[in-house]
Design a protein that fits this description.
The protein is 34% helix and 35% strand. The protein is of the alpha+beta class. The strands form two sheets. A five-stranded mixed beta sheet has the order 3-9-8-5-6. It has a four-stranded mixed beta sheet with strand order 2-1-4-7. The chain binds copper (II) ion.
Amino acid sequence: MRKAHALLICLLAGLIFLSACTPVAPGREEDEPAGNENENVNSNDNEAENVVEVELVSYEIHMPMTLDAGTITFHVVNNSQDDEHSIEIEGNGIEEELEPHLEPGEEGALTVDLAPGTYRVYCPVDDHADEHGMEIEITVK
Ligand SMILES: [Cu+2]
């Protein structure tokens, strides 16, 4: 037990010694933020290009159920054989519809700013959502 104690005290003394020495480095810390700024600019650019793939068939919406908050571009493809489809996103005061609706084989893009919360994504064509269940609920974090 005493050995363990002595070892612990040695370690603590070592830590205090090390932390007492570190203030020598402020000159280096000043250099680092400049490099970090550039990295931040790059990561912001990536967020702006946040594209989510959405596939529509009769009568399902295929897309991730969880998304990161921010500006999201939904790239939507209608892969159904003979039905017109589209998407509408509703929740947290937002109601955005992809127009014009997509004919079979067509694709389109809808860009929306999404804050954290839950949203209903559904097909606004005819009674696809209400009668055929063409809707899902997604979570934005
Ligand atoms: Cu539809």
